[in-house]
């Protein structure tokens, strides 16, 4: 059994994540939005938990990530942080809380850090949000970037298809990654871009690059837990590997429960007072 540097630390920090990249140990990251799930991920030994604004889709059933509010993200964040001892916890800054106004960005980030106890915040964008990134960093708050497919910009993109397939957009993405690194972000998520570009970005910067649909040349991977466990069943992009079909298992368990209630099988003598 291979042993990893990260197994010997009691708490994952930005420093540990940087050492993992330097030692070529891949970083494993998953989403969680609630206490019970976060506890299981932490017990399993996940390195980073992302309280993603994908909660807007997965938890609240919205079509995009845009509607989720700062208060709702703080609710999810604090629930996750209460469960976690070892993993590094990042909370997504929701749409409308950091774009175009760096003072508001700082206030939003401070609220997240103070009210959730998370380890860092994540923002989508490159040079267009650099003022907000700088201001948040100036308060000593660790920032994770997010480039490539940025779901908060879906109305600008008009499609969820692969980003940065042409030279102009891929050069812009590399410039943005370097700009974010120079500003001081500790890591960047790259979503749905060609694998060759993911590798190139990871090799061009010294901070960890975490991919979702960005190939295996990056420094770590992230998936939405509900997708990889098959709880969400109607989303199957090429980059998604399903590790379970919990959706089916939940439906079968609930059907068994309904049958047991209706047939008076549940509760039995041992299951009552
Ligand atoms: O909100 C989210 O879950 C994310 C991941 C897809 C990286 O940003």
Order of helices and strands: HEHEHHEHEHEHHEHEEHH
Low-confidence stretches: none
Helix content: 40-55%
| Helix run count | 11
Tell me which CATH architecture of the largest domain applies here.
Answer: Alpha-Beta Barrel
The largest beta-sheet arranges its strands as: 1-2-3-4-5-6-7-8
Number of strands: 8
* Content-based structural category: alpha/beta
Average residue pLDDT: 97
Rough outline: globular
Structurally, how many domains make up the residues? 2
Task: Tell me the radius of gyration.
Answer: 20 Å
Strand proportion, as a percent range, falls in 5-15%
CATH class of the largest domain: Alpha Beta
The CATH topology name of the largest domain reads TIM Barrel
- Ends distance: 48 Å
Which ligands accompany this protein? Answer: 3-methyl-2-oxobutanoic acid
Largest sheet: 8 strands, parallel, barrel
The named CATH superfamily of the largest domain: Phosphoenolpyruvate-binding domains
């Amino acid at each position: 059994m291979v042993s990893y540097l990260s197994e010997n630390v009691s708490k994952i920090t930005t420093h540990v994540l940087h050492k993992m990249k330097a030692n070529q140990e891949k970083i494993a990251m998953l989403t969680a939005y609630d206490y019970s799930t976060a506890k299981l991920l932490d017990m399993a030994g996940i390195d980073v938990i992302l309280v993603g604004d994908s909660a807007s889709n997965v938890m609240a059933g919205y079509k995009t990530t845009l509607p989720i509010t700062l208060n709702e993200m703080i609710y999810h964040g604090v629930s996750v942080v209460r469960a976690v001892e070892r993993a590094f916890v990042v909370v997504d800054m929701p749409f409308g809380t950091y774009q175009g106004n760096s003072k508001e960005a700082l206030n939003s980030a401070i609220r997240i850090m103070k009210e959730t106890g998370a380890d860092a915040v994540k923002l989508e964008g490159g040079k267009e949000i650099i003022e907000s990134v700088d201001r948040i960093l100036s308060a000593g708050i660790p920032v994770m970037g997010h480039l490539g497919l940025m779901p908060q910009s879906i109305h600008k993109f008009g499609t969820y298809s692969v980003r940065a397939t042409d030279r102009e957009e891929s050069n812009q993405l590399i410039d943005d990654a370097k700009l974010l690194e120079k500003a001081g972000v500790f890591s960047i998520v790259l979503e749905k871009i060609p694998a060759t570009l993911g590798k190139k970005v990871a090799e061009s910067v010294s901070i960890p690059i975490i991919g979702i649909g960005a190939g295996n040349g990056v420094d770590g991977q992230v998936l939405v837990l509900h997708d990889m466990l098959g709880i969400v069943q109607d989303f199957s992009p090429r980059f998604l590997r399903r590790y379970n079909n919990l959706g089916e298992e939940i439906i079968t368990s609930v059907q068994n429960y309904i049958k047991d209630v209706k047939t008076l099988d549940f509760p039995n003598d041992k299951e009552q007072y």
